[in-house]
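We examine the record.
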Amino acid sequence: MALNRQMVFQVTMPALLVALAMFGISLLGIRSINHLQADRDKIVSEHAFRLQKVQDLETYMRHIRLHSFLYVMSMTPERWAKVERDQTNFETTLGQLRDTTTDDGERRAIEAIETGYLEYRRELQDSTRSPPGPDRAAYLKWSDTHPIRHVVVPCDELLGLNRQAMKDTADESAREGDRTSTGMILLGVLGAGGGLIGGFGVAWGLSRSITRLNVQLQDVHAHLNHEVASLRLTAEGGNLQTMERQLGTILTRVREVVGQLQRQECETLRAEQLAAVGQLAASIAHEVRNPLTSINLLVGAALTGRYPNGLTETDLRVIHDEVGRVERKVQALLDFARPPEGEHHAEDVAGIVHRVVGLVQERLRQQAVRLSLELPTEPVTAELDRDQFQGVLVNLIFNALDAMPGGGRLDVRLAREGAGNLRLSVADSGPGIDTTVADRLFTPFTSTKTTGTGLGLSVSHRVVRAHGGDLTAANRDGGGACFTITLPAACGDPSRADVACGG
């Protein structure tokens, strides 16, 4: 999975960087094009507006000339109203041009139009006071020398300036278009070059990864070849399909080696168990022989008549105790081979702990072991077999006391945990768990005691598992060992208020 992530990273990063660079350049190009287009549209719109207004000036100028000529021929209020309307339109349009013009040449043309228009108004006023006539030649002469002539030339000049500005704008737009096209072509060339560079980077990264992988394959081959002589790899490292086949071959061989190691481990474990069984048999024989020797001596003495009054009460108690020892040893073997089926009921775990602590009080006093007991004030219930669980707790406490023959401290704590569990811990201040047996502490026949059978913890672990819990062990930071039992709380216990119980 790590190799896949590394390959994906090496393949995608160069392409991603090139794509991001191209995307950024494209965004800048689009922004620049939009900005230029907006500016050009604004300039074209302004020139079109002024060109339209100049054309409107010439139109109103022609209207003034026509209507003023008609008014001179027939001075009526209606004809003069048309002249005034034309003048108003002319003046309004001229004012709009003056407000929107920024070019110095157009300003000078507008000033010339204003000067000519004032001259036109003065001459037209003189003509109305002394109209031409009365013959046709006089009217024609006045028409040829119409006062509007003072406005015609600057209006034509202004119109020419606006047309030239429109032409310049069109030329500039064409040049900007050419530059944009050139930029897009350059962008395409850069994109192609970036793609080539990115492809080269990807190929280079893949080549390096394949080379490293091939070296690792050869290294694995060198190690496996020592164990599996039939494994062969080719030296070709640049072909992914070949390397995939090689990996498949190595995987098959690794599975075979792992299978062999597992079989060897099982055989070794079996040998260790057989050796442990032999040791256990010797230990049981020793433990059983001693009580039988005592019983045999007492019974033999009674049979030979050495005790004419029979066995005394003390002799019978010795025989009873020795038989009990033998029975306990045999029962330990039976419990390990076939744990008895228990009947689970809702039991107060704190009450069981109190009962077990009461049983071991005398031994605690004899060994000068201080007891620290922490139990909840309210009942803590769990579904369990009382006798089996009590036996587990007795075994854990006795093991803790065996680890502290010269005194120490025994901590027993019971508490509720989240998710509806109970946690019972038995901790001592002894030397702790031997690291040589820590990983197989609950394995049968594992013990560091000279007289131990190695079955107590194994049986205890099996009993706790049968109750749906778990038994774990660990060394404490301050020294000593801690055994922890985790059990599910019984339905109805406050700790299972948020846990569904089947019924």
Q: What stands out?
A: The mean pLDDT is 75. The radius of gyration is 56 Å. Residues 233 and 246 are 6 Å apart (CA to CA). DSSP finds eleven helices and seven strands in the chain.
